[in-house]
Design a protein that fits this description.
With 874 residues, the protein is mainly beta. It has five helices and 47 strands. The strands form seven sheets. It has a 22-stranded antiparallel beta barrel. The protein has a five-stranded mixed sheet with strand order 8-11-12-9-10. Strands 3-2-5-6 form a four-stranded antiparallel sheet, with no helix packed on it. It is globular. It starts with a helix and ends with a strand.
């Protein structure tokens, strides 16, 4: 099997080897030793004493390190000609980095003005070397995953989607009801606000217990975007992919005809004649002609269905930002972006037929404003906010009733017609005070202040669910459940979430720091829960100033929030805006007519009067070690407990033992949103980051974890609402083993080989009967009268190897800053390993397995795909 994979990959390995043979000859230089010197000043132009100044070569190897004297001066003697990076760090100020070129003559003395830090900056404990370096600062944990612009350019990234690539280092079990928290330039946002080349840096798990943020580090992805520059610089990207070079999907009878063309770029430079005015322009245009693979062994006519369904996507993004830098160090910028996307035949694939798809359209406008004001070298204020509007209509392919045959296929209409509009404000304003050992940060954060509109026209024609194929094929069909909705389905409401925070980062000693913080939460619709204080603490300790080992520990409380969809459900399914009719029984009439719904009680959604905002307590302890001068290793234990988590429960479910009638016959299903769930998680992370060898730089992470809970989220209904405790089992996202590698081999000065490796054990699969034996209208009953454990079946694992071979062609002697064309060839899932994505989990019987397809996979991730990248930078 392995030999077959190697033979399959041989053409692409040959292409990569041919690129490697293009390496240019080394250019020798005559060494003349010179001096690099300068002065380090604060924004008030006062000298900064004891700032650490380091000089490293372009390849990252160390040259020298020193500290500034009483006048802020520094000097490096006898520096050979070449390309270097100069770095300046000191607590309370932002890190300064500059690329310099040393020639045959001494450089003029450099004048370096440091900016006040908005967070505590790291201070090296070990001497010399390039980043990453161990630090006894609480915000500089080495089990974080940080990718700067150059690193992002060297690793394989599918379709320039950096968010998806870096998200592999997140923890799905740590995400809240709203999913992963995306923080862009310090503000929670729906997207990065710039096209891919406008992204400067992406971080995961940086300072995991900071009171600045709502979610813990492994549930938070931070993006820093590029600023303006006084000189013109730009990037133009072109991506091309065609299925003729790809492997065939394991479930496709014929290879689908797919093609993608992606045009993207950014431009930055001066805005007018004033060098303090700059701009950043980004845009992309995407034509993605992909196809969904339908593979149904037994279809509606007892015949197999193999169908490659075109699912084209069109995307347009444009953004513009204008910056102004004041003489005193203040900065203001204003930006705007527009985004439009259309996706057809969504929801199709696997067991879902073409006819059951839908079209989704998204349009968004957003204005961003940022203002940094420096009151003094000790006081700085940062204000950032955004105002936006978006609308997202969804339209079904056809208006016929939906037919779901559990474990076999879904046909008919999607019944997904829906429209969501949103006008929102997100923002933060915080003040930082630096004094001696303390860096205090306090302010307010508004993650969401929005006016939202929902038009719910789903299930107007109804959805039939069949427990077995025999029930569907019977002369008179025998559905297990039927759901239909009526009414205007329109609601408008305001969602208000806000927080206040305070944090003190204290440098007790050069080798010991502690952070103490607290965050307060508020969300409307939870008026009876005012005491949402979330304390946070973290500590970093090195045994000595020059120690190569740092110990870290921390703990914190993190509150959740509902997001807009559950609030919309409460307002829509109140028995007036949407009348929801749910029938359950055996057999039901087919088709169901309006007469059959006469007298059927309406199903509603309610909020538990005792509901409050759930929270998670996370705690960790770890040790970090400087392995080489340019790499660190870490081992971290992380535990968490989810307290009073969101779930739903039918509080009017039929009672045991016969389950024949609901307690209140005038009500249908009453889905009550509660905060009574619980989760327990323990994990150990092993990490290596930096440049452990001369040729490789990147990040490696292995996680051994175990997570149990009794809820899968705010919309989750237990198999038996009368006995929700029976749902305690492995989390839906519980992966026992998770290995990730993302990095690049620098083969020569102009050739690199990027690689990404993912090796995960499988998630659990919940085994269900496909029937509604307890009469609650939901076909999620488990075997053996519901006593079978939830998530008892072990799902398929995942193995993926991606490669990126690229060569730089420089058009000037200044290879670092001059014009450059990069030609890259990417291959994703290069081994063409079949990764199954879904498993049929329906037994077809309450007591035994009668479904012949039980346990079979129903779909798979794509096979090997090849992507050409052309990037021009100037």
């Amino acid at each position: 099997m392995f030999r077959r994979h190697i033979l399959t990959c041989r053409p692409w390995l040959a292409i990569w080897l041919s690129l490697l043979l293009l390496s240019p000859a080394a250019i020798s230089q005559t060494a003349t030793l010179n001096t690099v010197s300068g002065n380090v000043l604060d924004p008030a132009l006062a000298s900064i004493k004891a700032a650490q100044v380091t000089l490293v070569r372009a390849d990252g190897s160390p040259v020298a390190a020193t500290v500034t004297d009483e006048t802020g001066a520094f000097s490096f003697e006898k520096v050979a000609p070449g390309k270097y990076k100069l770095s300046v760090t000191i607590a309370g100020f932002r890190r300064f980095d500059r690329d310099i070129s040393v020639g045959s003559k001494n450089l003029p003395a450099l004048r370096i003005v440091l900016e006040i830090a908005t967070q505590s900056e790291s201070v090296n404990v070990s001497s010399g070397g390039a980043t990453p370096q161990l630090s006894a600062d609480v915000s500089d944990n080495q089990n974080a995953n940080t990718f700067e612009r150059d690193a992002l350019d060297r690793v394989p990234v599918f379709d320039q989607d950096y968010i998806a690539t870096i998200s592999r280092f997140l923890d799905d079990n740590a995400a809240g009801t709203n999913g992963v928290s995306l923080v862009v330039d310090g503000v929670e946002a729906n997207g990065p606000g710039v096209s891919p080349s406008g992204v400067q840096e992406v971080k995961v798990n940086q300072n995991p217990y900071s009171a600045r943020f709502a979610r813990p580090g492994r549930a938070r992805l931070e993006i820093t975007t590029k600023g303006g520059t006084p000189q013109f610089h730009g990037t133009v990207n072109f991506i091309f992919r065609d299925s003729v070079f790809d492997a065939q999907n394991a479930f496709a009878e014929t290879k689908p005809d797919e093609r993608r063309q992606f045009y993207e770029g950014s431009l930055t430079g001066p805005l007018g004649r004033n060098p303090r005015n700059t701009f950043l322009l980004t845009m992309d245009r995407d034509q993605n002609d992909v196809q969904a693979i339908v593979s149904v062994p037994i279809g509606p006519n007892n015949l197999p269905i193999q169908d490659n369904v075109p699912a084209p996507e069109r995307h347009l993004f444009e953004s513009f930002r204008a910056f102004h830098d004041f003489a005193n160090g203040d900065q203001v910028w204003v930006g705007y972006f527009f985004e439009s996307q259309t996706s057809e035949n969504q929801g199709v694939g696997g067991l879902i037929l073409r006819e059951a798809g839908y079209t989704q359209i998204g349009r968004e406008h957003e204005v961003n404003i940022s203002y940094r004001h420096i009151f003094s070298p000790k006081w700085v204020n940062q204000l950032r906010f955004l105002i936006g509007h978006n609308d997202n209509p969804i339209t079904s392919n056809n208006a016929t009733p939906q037919m779901i045959v559990e474990g076999f296929f879904t046909s008919g209409g999607a019944q997904a017609d829906f429209n969501r509009t949103e006008s929102h404000f997100d923002g933060t304003d915080f003040l930082t005070y630096t004094n001696g050992k303390h860096v205090l940060t306090f302010g307010v954060d508004v993650p969401d202040l929005s006016r939202r509109g929902f038009d719910n026209h789903t299930n107007l024609q109804g959805t039939y669910t069949f427990g077995t194929l025999a029930d569907f094929n019977a002369a008179t069909k025998r559905p297990a459940t039927f759901l239909q909705q009526q009414g205007p389905g329109h609601v408008i409401f305001w969602e208000r979430t806000a927080a206040g925070f305070f944090e003190d980062n204290i440098r007790l000693k050069p080798n010991l720091s502690i952070s103490l913080g607290v965050r307060y939460y508020f969300q409307n619709y939870f008026h009876n829960d005012p005491n949402n204080f979330a304390p946070r603490v973290s500590l970093a300790f090195a045994p000595s100033k020059k120690s190569k080992t740092v110990f870290r520990t921390g703990a914190g409380v993190f509150f959740d929030r509902t997001g807009p969809r559950p609030i919309a459900d409460l307002l829509l399914f109140n028995g007036v805006n949407v009348q929801r009719f749910l029938l359950s029984g055996n057999p039901l009439p087919f088709p169901v007519t309006s007469a059959d719904l006469t007298g059927v009680p309406i199903s509603t959604v309610t909020l538990d009067p005792a509901a409050h905002i759930p929270y998670t307590v996370q705690y960790s302890a770890g040790v970090e070690r400087q392995v080489t001068s340019k790499s660190t290793a870490s081992v971290t234990y992380i535990g968490s407990r989810g307290i009073d988590l969101f779930r739903s429960r039918d509080v009017n479910a039929p009672l045991p033992p016969d389950y024949l009638a609901r307690p209140d016959a005038t009500e249908g299903q009453v889905r009550q949103i509660e905060s009574r769930g619980y989760q327990k998680s323990n994990s150990v992370e092993f990490g290596l980051r930096g440049k452990p060898t001369k040729f490789f730089s990147g990040q490696v992470q292995y996680t051994l974890s175990k997570t149990y809970n009794n809820t899968s989220g705010i919309n989750y209904l237990p198999a038996n609402s009368n006995f929700p405790a029976l749902d305690w089992a492995r989390s839906d996202n519980d992966r026992r083993h998770k290995f990730d590698l993302l990095g690049a081999f620098q083969v020569s000065e102009s050739i690199s080989l990027g690689t990404a490796l993912q090796a995960y054990s499988g998630r659990p699969v919940n085994v269900i009967t496909g029937l509604d034996s307890n009469g609650d209208g939901v076909t999620n009953d488990r075997p053996n009268g519901g006593l079978a454990p939830r998530n008892s079946f072990h799902g398929p694992g995942f193995l993926g190897l991606d490669l990126n071979a690229e060569r730089d062609f420089n058009f000037s002697k200044d290879k670092k800053a001059g014009p450059r064309l990069t030609v890259a060839l990417n291959a994703f899932n290069v081994l063409n390993h079949v990764n199954y994505s879904n498993v049929i989990n329906v037994t077809g019987s309450p007591t035994m397995i009668i479904n012949p397809r039980f346990g079979d996979p129903s779909s798979a991730n794509p096979g090997r795909r090849v992507q050409l990248n052309l990037t021009y930078k100037f």
